[in-house]
Amino acid sequence: MPQALTPAREQRLQALAAQYGTPLWVYDAAVIRERIAALRGFDTVRFAQKACSNTHILRLMREQGVKVDSVSRGEVLRALAAGYTVGTDADAVHSDIVFTADLLDRETLKTVVEHRVPVNAGSIDMLEQLGEASPGHPVWLRLNPGFGHGHSNKTNTGGEHSKHGIWHTQLPDALAVIARRGLTLIGLHMHIGSGVDYGHLAQVCGAMVDLVRVVKAQGLDLQAISAGGGLSIPYRDGDAGIDTAHYFSLWDAARQDAQAVIGHPLALELEPGRYLVAESGVLLAEVRAVKTQGSQHFLLVDAGFNELMRPAMYGSFHAMSLIPADGQTRPTQATVVAGPLCESGDVFTQEDGGVVLTRDLPRARVGDLLVIHDTGAYGASMSSNYNSRPLIAEVLVDGPTERQIRRRQTVDELLALEL
Ligand code: LLP
């Protein structure tokens, strides 16, 4: 839910926009710390850094005792750069870093072997390749329970239409590869989607316990289970926020059932991305043009879908506020909010499928500041250089202080890659 825009906060955002230029990502460390605190029941909270992988955000997570999930070689190297370490194989269940994916490209395979990063395998081929390259390597199994859920079809990661995870009925085959290759099983993991509906939770927990039974029946042991991520946040007024205590209690009950099956204590992990960072972030953009096309009123800002891709990609809703440059109150107007890209889909007010929507906003003028809320997750991390636009700066606010945690990229840097 967007933090209230008090006059003091409006002034601060205006000052940041003036100092660092727009478009600009701004994160609030206090919100991240609050979200971490709400998940304390879990033995391990492992941040899915794809949501926001700036190393300064990762350092903040590390200082708060949060571990990290990496899904590419780049994300493994980011975690190491942020001070995360990998312990010994014997302590692999406590590893700061886990690598989760459905395949290992050759470079990444070398990196996870070199740093001995535990691998959460989403395919049997991964197990074979890892076993060949790295005897005894610690592994998790990411399982697809045969059903999934998400805020859009594009974020549903379970069921037969999803490419993710090892299909639940193939768990015995995966365990046989682990035994044959001499890999070490740490735990079972399940992530059925992002922005999940909690009605599915009991079903997910039940599936996890059933799969632990399969491990036991095959004579293997494990030390942990992971609930994956997927915790949603209230993007719209009236969206129910997640009850983290209830969420924990359901998973804790599943853990106890799993412990009864396996015969000893199991660690319980959670792997959230969005929940930890989404509400900490805003995207600031300057209004650069306003125009009326037939019956539609357009407000054009200097940020596009190359910065915030979620509305164009999923039809995602983000709350927006306009801060008038002159501080005056203006009448509201149904407004289409769009960006600078040479592409019709560069609209921040749209539904999945590209239908353009309007938002009631104060009548905008050039020079006003648009605040796009709840963009701390899958904002900067999904940005691109489309239309040869350099990546923008990121600022981390912490109480009265703030610091730039990524400077703006330059066009020269883009061109340098091509020489
Ligand atoms: N664990 C695994 C294995 C995942 O694949 C993901 C997200 C997460 C954890 C974290 O999910 P979260 O807690 O953030 O929902 N770009 C989309 C979201 C895609 C998420 C992909 N995997 C969006 O902007 O909504």
Automatic annotation (TrEMBL):
Name of the molecule in the record: Diaminopimelate decarboxylase
Gene3D superfamilies membership: Alanine racemase, Lyase, Ornithine Decarboxylase, Chain A, domain 1
Gene Ontology BP terms: lysine biosynthetic process via diaminopimelate
Primary role: Specifically catalyzes the decarboxylation of meso-diaminopimelate (meso-DAP) to L-lysine.
Amino-acid positions noted as binding pyridoxal 5'-phosphate in the UniProt annotation, renumbered to this chain: G230, E271, P272, G273, R274, Y378
Active-site residues (renumbered): C342 (proton donor)
EC code: 4.1.1.20
Domain Orn/DAP/Arg decarboxylase 2 C-terminal: start-end pairs: 26-376
Record text on subunit structure and interactions: Homodimer.
Superkingdom classification of source: Bacteria
GO molecular function, one term: diaminopimelate decarboxylase activity
Orn/DAP/Arg decarboxylase 2 N-terminal domain segment(s): 43-278
UniProt family annotation: Belongs to the Orn/Lys/Arg decarboxylase class-II family. LysA subfamily.
Cofactor: pyridoxal 5'-phosphate
Organism encoding this protein: Roseateles aquatilis
Catalytic activity: meso-2,6-diaminopimelate + H(+) = L-lysine + CO2
InterPro entries for this protein: Ala_racemase/Decarboxylase_C, DAP_deCOOHase_LysA, De-COase2_C, De-COase2_CS, De-COase2_N, De-COase2_pyr-phos_BS, Orn/DAP/Arg_de-COase, PLP-binding_barrel
Functional pathway: Amino-acid biosynthesis; L-lysine biosynthesis via DAP pathway; L-lysine from DL-2,6-diaminopimelate: step 1/1
Chain positions recorded as substrate binding sites: R274, R310, Y314, E343, Y378
Residue positions where N6-(pyridoxal phosphate)lysine is found in the record: K50
Keyword annotations from UniProtKB, A to Z: Amino-acid biosynthesis, Decarboxylase, Lyase, Lysine biosynthesis, Pyridoxal phosphate
PANTHER family: DIAMINOPIMELATE DECARBOXYLASE, GROUP IV DECARBOXYLASE
